[in-house]
Amino acid sequence: MSRTSPHQHSEESELSRRGLLRAAGGLAAGLAVAGTAGTADAAPSTWTHPGMLHNAGDINRAKVRVAAGTDPWLSGWNRLTANSHSQSTWTNRATATVIRGGTGENYGLLYNDIAAAYQNALRWLVGGTEANAVCAADILNAWSRTLTTVTGNADRFLAAGIYGWQFANACELMRGYGGFDLAAAQEMLAEVFYPLNNQFLTGHNDACITNYWANWDLCNMASVLAIGILNEDAAKYDQAVTYFKSGAGNGSLTHAVPYLYTDSDGYALGQWQESGRDQGHTVMGMGQMGAICEMAWNQGEDLYSYDNRRFMKAAQYVAKYNLGNDVPYTTYTWGSGQNCAQQSQTVIGSGSRGQIRPVWAMLHFHYNRRLHLDDKYISQMYYDLVAPEGGGGDYGTTSGGFDQLGFGTLMYAK
User: CB count, 10 Å around CB of 347?
Assistant: First the structure.
């Protein structure tokens, strides 16, 4: 077993998302080149819509395959239509103030309604049912016109991050629908969610820069990126991409994947920043960073391959351990609290080992099917334990089951 240092970069050239598209004549199925080559973190000069978790090609493929009754898309579709959140009879519970952490918590109202909006939007786009479009638009409009405050203890930053990027993704799917108030959604996200996202990424709640786990940064980065795309705001897009590449906190790529290894079978692995904590949060991290990479990919930026595919190495590591295999672990030390008191984790955390979350289809179908890479452990995790993927409402009623939007089998299978 060999290990490279946290900051050692391979000489192997990175795959260029824009380069791939240019090599294909500038066009791929449903994917337009979003902008021209320029600085690595430059926002696209022409925005692609839909262009977050799903592009036009993804939607058309799912629509055609489901209509033809072809698996695995049909199996993914059946998981969607069986979910209670995807029914057009869902009634929103929009409220002016969302609280996560502390007295009066009510944030379940928001994450359940976001799941319902997203799932109804998918049913409309793939199945063509108008009632689902009406339902999704009603949910998004109600929250866009009602929500004014996201608050609570420090967990308010988790709410602003996770539900910011998820809400924006549901909006992106509905942006072409006449009954959806895009302007209200854009304004609400920019005025309610973004200030908290920005406050966390720039100030980290006045804590030591390493105090918060990677997922706290990642969800707020994802929200800034998604709001940037929805609102065609280049500054926000650039902020998120720049932080991914060089941010000071634990969510930036090198800090999120501090140690690299090669296992006895020759597979490159990357220790995840939360691996010494527990596995539920490491798998959550695959979903949060995966969402950032997929959204950027659909705008022409290849973060999946950044730093010699460092994220893929982390996903392989997390998958390998959660499949029941041994992985190397290097003692992880960080500064905590406001005074950066030193903490250390000397062994990998086994809590929640093998937890199922719908995060693996996105990664498998990118690395294995788009790029034709050997993703042994990611692939095994997806096919052996997860497929077909469900979404919010299929993995329990608590917030962890709603940390990802899911339905990757339906939307990413190739």
Answer: 10
The residues with which 270 forms a beta bridge, in sequence order, are 260
Q: What is the pLDDT of residues 368-414, one digit of tens each?
A: 999 999 999 999 999 999 999 999 999 999 999 999 999 999 999 99
- Measured from the Cβ of residue 24, the count of other Cβ atoms closer than 10 Å reads 12
Triad 207, 208, 211: Cα angle to 5° = 90
Query: Over 70: is that where the pLDDT of 2 sits?
Result: no
- Pick the closest to residue 117 from 91, 142, 135, 95 (CA basis): 135
Separation CA 389–CA 364 (nearest Å): 12
* Contact of 260 with 313, CB cutoff 8 Å: yes
Could you tell me the pLDDT band of residue 22, with boundaries at 50, 70 and 90? Answer: very low
- Return the pLDDT at 28: 37
Model confidence pLDDT, tens digit, residues 76-85: 999 999 999 9
* Percent of all residues in the chain with a pLDDT value above 90, rounded to a whole number: 90
Q: In DSSP terms, which residues pair with 242 in a beta bridge?
A: none
> Residue 102 corresponds to which amino acid?
G
Q: Assess whether pLDDT exceeds 60 at residue 48.
A: yes
Classify residue 85 as exposed, middle or buried by CB count within 10 Å of its CB (0-12, 13-18, 19+). buried
* CB environment 271-306: b (16+ within 10 A), e (fewer): bbbbbbbbbbbbbbbbbbbbbbbbbbbbbbbbbbbb
pLDDT given at position 322: 98
For residue 337, the Cα-to-chain-centroid distance in whole angstroms is 27
Task: Report the relative pairing of strands 31-32 and 259-262 from DSSP bridges.
Answer: unpaired
Are 96 and 80 spatial neighbours (Cβ–Cβ below 8 Å)?
no
Closest by CA position to 275, among listed 291, 292, 254, 258: 258
pTM here is: 0.92
Distance CA 259, CA 348 (A): 13
Does the CA dihedral 353-356-359-360 come out positive or negative?
A: positive
In whole angstroms, give the CA distance from residue 205 to residue 203: 5
Element (H, E) at 175: none
Q: From 317, 380, 352, select the one nearest 3 (Cα to Cα).
A: 317
DSSP string, 123-156: HHHHH--HHHHHHHHHHHHHHHHH--EEESSTTH
Q: Which two tokens stand for residue 400?
A: 């962890």
pLDDT of residue 4: 43
Tokens 């096919």 belong to residue: 383
The verdict on whether omega for the bond into residue 388 sits within 30 degrees of 0, i.e. cis, is yes
